[in-house]
Amino acid sequence: MKSTFSKGWLSILVVLGVLMIDQIVKIEVKTNMSYGESIRITDWFYIHFVENNGMAFGMQIMPKVIQTVLRILFSGIIIWYISILAKANYKRGYIVCVSLILAGAIGNIIDSIFYGVIFSKSTFTEIATFVPLGHGYADWLYGKVVDMLHFPLFEFNWPDWIPFIGGNHFLFFSPVFNIADAAISCGIFILLLFYSKSFSNSYHLAKTEFKRLLKK
Fold first, then answer.
1. Is the pTM of this model over 0.85?
2. Is the dihedral of CA 173, 178, 182, 185 positive or negative?
């Protein structure tokens, strides 16, 4: 019982910690930078303010409202999954990785649900401000996700003799993302790298628990 309690609280602390940092950074950027503005930190790291309607790294694969609802459902499933892991006394590292994925999902959900109704629109010439609830730039569930982390590590032009891409400019790494995206990516990467066997075992555990719930 003590182990279950401590691992459950570990997950909660990870999620709250990531969410706090994610939202503080997003609000600071949103209320202090105009859209498209870029601040150089180093040659390979910029704070570059953009927004997107999609999922991680700006991907858009379905209508915005459906995407937001599915994110909420996905987060609910992960919460249920973490509770099973805690009860089964799973490895702390594995629980932390899943908690990072959950934190990232919730972080972007917050933007989608609330930012459209509490902020004015960010433009190239105007900085967004807090507005009375419901007087923002979009309806509930239609808020845009704030991105700001840009790491243009290196860039070059492809040699002219290379077919199709010769002469084109190449930039690595071009996507602009946020801390929530980074949490999701780190959680998935570490799971695949170190916990693939644990993931397989936990799948069977969750499947058994789900069948048990259906029989109630």
1. yes
2. negative
Q: Which residues are catalytic?
A: 147, 181
What is 183-196 written as a DSSP string? HHHHHHHHHHHH-H
Q: Which amino acid does the sequence have at 210?
A: F
Short-list 68, 93, 112, CA closest to 14? 93
Structure tokens at 159: 């040699």
Count of structural domains, the chain: 1
- The pLDDT tens digits of the residues spanning 157-172 come to 888 898 888 889 888 8
N-term to C-term CA, the chain: 24
Q: Which amino acid is at 174?
A: S
Rounded Cα distance, 19 and 169, in Å = 36
Domain of 78, in residue numbers: 2-215
Residue 40, both tokens:
């150089």
In angstroms, the CA 117 to CA 68 distance is: 15
Contact status, residue 103 vs residue 22, Cβ threshold 8 Å = yes
**Percentage, residues of the chain above pLDDT 90:** 65
